[in-house]
Structure formats: C-alpha cells, structure tokens
Amino acid sequence: MRLAILSCLALSACAFALPPSRVEVGRTARPDHNGTQIAVGGSVGSMLPATKSRFELGLGIISRSSEEASTETSKRGVYVDIGYAVLNSEHARMLVGFRGEHFGGAGEIQAAKLRVDAEVLANIASGGAGGGGCGGGFGGVVGNFGLGVFAEAGRVFGNHMLDPDGIGWTASAGITVRLPFMGGVAFSSNSAGCSGGDSGSSWFPSGKSRDSGGSRGWSGSSGSGSRSR
C-alpha cells in the first residue's frame, strides 16, 4: 500500500480500479450460536445487464461474528456463489442458486447452502476525460448498482457441531449492495511551466453523450475552462 502511494507521488500519476462486486450484511444462525455475517467479493452479476445474462458467479471473503455465552468470537473464510435468474427484467431480478463456504483454522467448518436473492438494479456505462496542459485524467463506470435482500439455508460440516456426526444446519438472511466496475487514471506535471494557474487543473468524468447522428462525445473540465471533442 505504501509502495503504491509512493509510486504515485514519484510519477505524478495514480490509477485506481474497483472490480464489479457485491457486499452483503445479515444475521446468521447455527445450532451452537447466532451472529452477524459480512461478505465481500467479485460478482459477474454486478457487471452484466440483467437482460444480457441470467447467470451469477461470485467469489469472495466472508466473516462471521458470534455471541456464545457472553463471549464474542469471529471466523473468516471464503465463499463461492453460483446462481440463475428465474425472474429478470431490466431493473429487477430474482436469483436462485448455491453457496459453498470454507472456514479454516481451529474448528474448521464447511457449509453448503441453497440461496435466494431478490434485487433492484440500475445498469450504467459512462466515462469521461479531461484536463489542462499540466494534468488531467480519464475514468469510467460500467456495470450495475443494486440493492437487494437474500435468504439462504443449508448444512454445515465440522467435528465440533452439536450433532454426533459433526453435521448441523445453518441459515442466514440480510441485505446486499452491488457495485459496478469503476476505474481511472489521474496525472499531473511537475514542470516549471505548471507553476501558474493551470497547476490547479482537475478532471471529472462527465459521462457519455450522443448527438443526433449517434456519435459519442466526451467532455472534461480543467482549471483553464472546459472543452469537448
């Protein structure tokens, strides 16, 4: 992290990127405890429009904190999601699928669950570029913003489960937030000629636009004014 920041300072340029992702927060229950579940990961469903693909594939990290006899414990693991949209439209869909989870370390456990998601979506594809003689940048946003709810239930396997065979049940429910791909590059010049008013130039992605002929336009702004091409 420090190296990346120092490199940006030395080169007077920085790049950033957020992959298409999904964040979820909810409550979870098992025979031995109740707790809070948080998961963050990449998601195909956050990139493609709902009308273009019915399939969901996700991979990420998951954390569970539990309250057991006034003692709070937490475990971290990984998950994989596979789903299919049984109902979908341009701005809403319902996914039915499978989730597998693995929590390592002491008290290692695995879980296999059926899952249902219902969500509303807004697909966006926009970008922009701009700047002055002493700096500028470009960036874009592609994918789905979304808000939804989920419910899942299944079996959990671990030799510390209450069941003598090391098998128990688990169930979770909560809310989800989808974020699209976001990325860009910003740069500036440290040359002597940039000590004037143009040194404060900035850029802002302003999105795609279409004129009557269907051509795409990109616009940006800088410290010396705005321009388009």
How far from one another are the termini? 36 Å
**Continuous helix count:** 1
Sheet of most strands: 8 strands, antiparallel, barrel
What is the mean pLDDT? Answer: 77
- Count the beta strands: 14
| Percentage of β-strand residues | over 45%
Q: Within the largest sheet, what's the order of strands?
A: 2-3-4-5-6-7-8-9
What is the helix content?
Answer: under 10%
What would you call the shape?
globular
Gyration radius over CA? 23 Å
Structural class: mainly beta
- Uncertain stretches of 5 or more adjacent residues: 1-7, 195-229
Give a brief outline of the structure.
With 229 residues, the protein is mainly beta. It contains 1 helix and 14 strands; from the N terminus they run αββββββββββββββ.
Explain what this protein looks like in three dimensions.
The structure is a single chain. The chain is mainly β and 229 residues long. Helix content is 4%, strand content 66%. The protein has an eight-stranded antiparallel beta barrel with strand order 2-3-4-5-6-7-8-9. A hairpin with a 2-residue loop joins strand 2 (21-30) and strand 3. The radius of gyration is 23 Å and the shape is globular. Mean pLDDT is 77; it is low at 1-7 and 195-229.
